[in-house]
Amino acid sequence: MNLTPSEHTVGDLTRHYRRKAKISQGKFGERVGMSKSHVSKIETGLIIQPEYSTMLRIVKELNIPMNEMILCYVKYECRADILQIMLLEAIGLEDAALTKIVASKYLESPHSDSLVAIAKLYDTTEPLEDPDTKLALFKVIINYSRGHGVMPYLAKAQLQSYLIERDDFSRLRETYDMGKYVLKYIEFLSDAERITLYYRLAVHAFILRMPKDIVTYCDLVRAEPTESEFKIHAVGMLREAYLSLGNYDMTEKYIEEYRMCSPYDDNHIMVEAMLASKRGYKELAITQFEVCLRHCRADYVINVVNELVSNYIQLAQLGPIPDLLLLEEEITKINYKSPLKRAELARFYKQKGDYYALLKDLKKSVNNYLLAAGNYVQIDDNSSEHECLMLMFRLYRTNQRSMDIETIELLEKYLESCFLDK
Question: How far apart are the C-alpha atoms of 273 and 300, rounded to whole Å?
Answer without folding.
Answer: 15
